[in-house]
Structures are given as C-alpha cells and as structure tokens.
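User: We ran a pulldown and think these components assemble together. Before we commit to crystallization trials, I'd like a predicted model of the whole complex to look at. Sequences follow.
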Amino acid sequence: MNIPVTPGDLLAIGPISVMFAGALVVLLAESIFRNGEAWNRWLALAGFLAAGTVAFLNTGWSGVAFGGTVATGGFANYCAIVYASAGALSVLLSTDYLRKTGIAFGEYYALLMIAVLGMMLMGAALDLVVFFLGLETMSIAFYVLAAFARSQGTSNESGLKYFLLGAFATGFLLYGIALVYGTTGTTSIPLIRDKAPSLIGTPVFTIGLALILIGLLFKIAAVPFHMWAPDVYEGAPTPVSGFMATGGKAAAFAAFLVLFRPEVLGGEKGLRDVIAVVAAASMIFGNVVAIAQSSIKRMLAYSSIAHAGYILVGVVAANATGANGVLFYLMAYTVMNIGAFGVLAMVENGAGENLHFEDYAGLSAQAPVLSLMMALFMFSLAGVPPFAGFFGKYYVFAGAIQAGYTWLAIVGVLMSVVSAYYYLRLVVMMYFTAASASPRRVGKSSAGLLALGIAVAALVYLGLFPSTIIDVTSRFF
Amino acid sequence: MSVPLPYYLGLSAVLFAIGVIGVLTRRNVIVVFMSIELMLNSVNLTLVAYSSFLGDVSGQALVFFVMAVAAAEAAVGLALVIALFRNKQTVNIDQINILKW
Amino acid sequence: METFDIIFYLFALITVGSACIVVFSKNIVYAAFSLLFTFFGVAGLYVLLQADFLAVTQVLVYVGGILTLLLFGVMLTNKVISVDMKTGTLHAVPAMILAAVVFGSLAGLFYATWSGVTAPASSIISTARPIGEMLMTGYALPFEVASVILLVAMIGAAFMARRPKKL
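Assistant: Here's a predicted model for the assembly, 745 residues in total across the polymer chains.
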C-alpha cells in the first residue's frame, strides 16, 4: 500500500504538469500585468506548444506513474498531442474573436489550459477516480467557457444548460463507477479489465458499465444523449464551440478506448450492440437534421453529432484497425472542425451575426483565401479524398467490417454521401452565388489566418501520408 | 451489523430514482440542482455501503472526491444561475428559451 | 428486531421522506430545508456503515457548504416578498413511472445478487487514518487534481458572478 510519490512522478506525467504550471503562470500574469489578456494569449500558446512538444518527445515509450493510477507516454501522450493542438489552434483563433465581442479577459486562457489538463488526465487515466476527476475538471472549465460571454443571454443559457445536463450525466456516470467498484472491489482500470472475463454476465457489472457508457455518450453528444449539443454549441462563443466539439469529444473517446478495451467489450455482446445502434442512430440523425439547418453554427453542431457516430463505429469494432482509426479520426476531426469553427469566428461580427448560409453568398470574391480554406475543411468533413477526413472514415469502417459489423459500415458510407449535400451547399454558396446587397465586413486576423493555414496544411499532409499517425498509433494496441 | 447490504443498496437506488424524477419533472433550476445533489448523495451511499462490505477503504476515498467535485459544481452552477438571472430575471427552465430546450 | 435495525429504518425513513419533499414540494424554501434532513439522514447511514470520517465530512461539506450556497441561490434569485416562490412541474407522470420501474428493478437485482450479505464487522476503529494514508499514497494524483478542480471552480464562479464591467 505504501507507494512513495516522488518528483519523478510529476516529470513522468510531463504534459499534464506543463499544463498545470502554464495555467498558474497565466493566472499570475492576469493579476500582475495591466493588459493581462495580451500577455496571456502568448503565454497560453507557449504552454500548449511546450506540452505538445514534451508529449511528442515521449511517445516512444510507455509506463505508469503515481502508483499505477496514471499512464505515461505512448497512448496518453498521443492524446495529449491532440488536445494540445486543439488548445493551441483555439488560442490563435480566439484572440481576435474575444476582442471584437468584448470578452477579452485573461481568465479565458487559464480555463482553456485547465480544460486541456482535464482531457489529458482522461486520456491517461488508469484508475476510475483519476478518470472521473479529469472528466470533471474538463467539464467545469467547459461550463464556464460556454457561458463566457456573460452579459449575453444566449451564452449564459448555453452554459447553464450544459451544466445542468452535464451534472445529470455525471450522476449516472458515478453510479456506474460505484456499481463497477462494488462488483470488482477495485477502481483500478487494469485490474477491472483482468476481472472482467469472470464477471461477464453478472447483471450488476453490466449495468455499471452501461451507466458509465451513458455518461460518456453524453460527453460525445451521441443520440439519444445529444439534445444539449446544438443549443450549447450555438450559444457558446464560436471558438469555444469549436474547442468543445473537438477536444472534449476526443477526450471522451480516449476514455472509451481505455475503458472499453476488446477484453471488456468483446464479452459484453449486448453492450456492444447497443453502442452499434447508438452509432448508427447518431450518424442518421445528425446528418439528416443538419440538412435542415439555416445557421452554419447549428449545422456544424449536428454534423458533430454525426461525426461522433462515425468515430463510435471504430469503438464498436473493438479491434486494432478500429482503434487506430479512432485515434487517426480524432486528430483529423480536431484539425478540420476547429478550422471550420475558426472560419465562422472570423466571418462572424461582434454582435453574433453572419452565421447563416445566405451570409456566405459570394464570399469567395471578398475573401478568397478564407473561402478556399473553408471549402477544404468542408471537403474533409464530407470525407472527400485525399483529405484527412477520408482516411479517418476509411479506417473506422474497415475496422467495423473486420469485426463483422458490415451493416454499420454501410450505414456510415451512405450517411457520408448524405452529408456531402450540406457541406457542399456551403461551398456552392461561397463560390457560385451572387453576393447579397448589404456589404459584410470580414475580420482580418493574422493569428487566425496562421491557425487556419496550419490546420489546412495538417489536413492535406495527413490525407497524403496517413501512415505517419497510423505507424505511431498501431504500437498502442 | 445486522442490516444486509442490499438494504443499503436498495435505499440508495430509491434515492437515486427520486433525484432522477426531480431532474426530469421540475422546472426551477435550483430544484433541479438539488435533485442532482440527491443523486450524488445516493451514489455516495452506494459507495460507502460497498466499501464497508468489501472492507476496502478506497471506496470511501472516492466519496471524498465526489464531495469535493459536488462542492465545485455547486459553486459554478450557482454562479451561472446568478449570471443568467441578472440578464433574464428568471430561473424557470421553460422560460429560458432563446435557444430551444 | 434489534435496536440497530430500528435505527437503520429511522434514518432510511428520514432520508427518503425528506428527499420526496425536496422533489415534490411546491415551495422552494421547504425543498431546501428538507434537503438538510436528507443530508443528515445520509450522514447517519454513514455512521451505521462505520464511515465516521465521511459522516463528519458529509455534514461539513454538504450542510455547511453546498446547502448554504443553495440557500443563497434561492434567496438571490427570488424576490422573497413580491414574487411567489412556487415552482411547477413538467411531464411528471411518464418520468416517475420510468424512474420507478428502472430503479425498482435495480433494487430487486441488488437483493437477488447479495441477499443476506451483511457488512463484516470491520476491525477499523477510525477511517480517518486509512483514508488519509490513501490520499497521500495511492490516490496522491487524484488528491492533487481535486485541488485543480477547486481552483477552476473558484476562477469560474468569481468570473461569472462578477458584475460585468465595460472594457
């Protein structure tokens, strides 16, 4: 029982320690400097880059720290890179947006960094307690970030709605943890995994897993636990929506891969079929409802429900191809979706307007670079080769077919075709529709353009050389 | 110790159900929040019952963390309620309808 | 029936009864005050389960902290004198039936799985020491993360509740 904790443990969980130190520095800078916000954006960016670098340098090995409650290196660090890139891109895209909407407060960056810290813990957790606390750290930061435009009714509502439903889902998740603890007598995930084969078929254990599943499905906004997503994403400040839809989702999927390993999911046939049905329902519902939207922000929210469905297909597969696909998809989705929300944030004006399809009419003449990048993000979200989004779908569907879930892959492919309709509708709007009479001012932010440029470069690179990531991730399974 | 374990577990299941009913049926945000606290209390009771039955203290340590999280959630939740109330002067869910519920 | 059983049923009755008042009362102040009794009832059950440290923490954190906070919320968001403090309900019947069926069957399942199992009389005199040791060894990381959660809650609550100032 006596596990000494050494400073070496803090070094071993490098990215997490860097995030925490960074958040403290940002908070201090906010209170020391007069224009704390201006300092903080660079400090936060440096923090995310440092955490990403530390994680990148240590992906080659893997181990445990803090007495086996947290994993280091390997899988955990790959996830940390995804979250750190989401954080860094969000910082670059936020600075201009915060200024024009009048919410340029330094706390924003501290909350972003603490949210990323929570995500990293979820990806690294080897103990249900660590997993739960990571999830809550992320969630509480998200509740505040969603409501960050505190004098705007919509943002307040968005935060409160997310909070109430999130706390409700936490109740189910915790009840599930309690039942799993009761049947296995431990909170350690590897020990639970070892005991799982002998507990398959025990109703209380299965119910416990199902309740944990509900908590996670809520976080990824899968049908039928999706009802919060469109409202929250629409009401929250646009860069925050992009961050929640990518980083938050990626963290929950990392937890999926840790908790529902093949040895657990393979035995729980019923649970696995339930996840398959949820995945199919999410793909169908998200894509069909997205067609009917007139607001692009809301359309992206429904599309994020659909993408949660695609990624779940990889979880259902419960084999190496599927798991690699999930990890690749998370990286691709993070880049392209933050990019799409980033373009939205740049076109949006200070009063929260210019978010509808008709506002994008003839945008290509006015902002050719921005329109081109938005078009590329849309192609990638639709899964057009050779962009990263295509290979993400390819790997998860291939995994599902290997695992015998061919029907699920067919649903996925059909729904991707449906999704092309509304993604391409935006492209048509930007390129082939005459501009409306009222002139619209498109924000010029060099930091934002830099972030979008990086995102586009990553999309194309990952689309042309998907093996750079697959080679790394295939070592984890 | 003559009370069997399922009595405690059943009691906490009942408490959890009452909390769920409260969340699903009440309109006042603060009452919804109280119902969520009931759910967390029921989870804690389950954990303590298991912990005592297993003779393993780690379940009780988990309860300790749940309490810390509940306190943090309470603080943030009420701050959100107050920020919303300042803008809209209501705490009823169905009057909060800029975005559809 | 032994004294111990009677005490258990008494606390169970207090807990469930006051929880029902929390959920079904039309008056939000009554709801907040009966939540107090639920918290005390649960604390009593912790004592029966020999979780002395948690029983004390329950009273301190839930009653001393969370309930006080909730009462502040009630008072700040209701004009106590002018506005009536009644709160309505929505789609009550289906929700109740659903919850009752689901968790009723869960309770039955517990009985089927562990019927007759009683908690062993543990040799632990006080749980404060083992919990403390646990927090400093096996659960050292969660313990530190809990501090991060409280930090983010402080930042968030202070930020949200502060009156907006123009830039």
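Residues 7-473 of chain A form one domain. That may be worth checking against your pulldown data before setting up trials.

User: Thanks, that helps.
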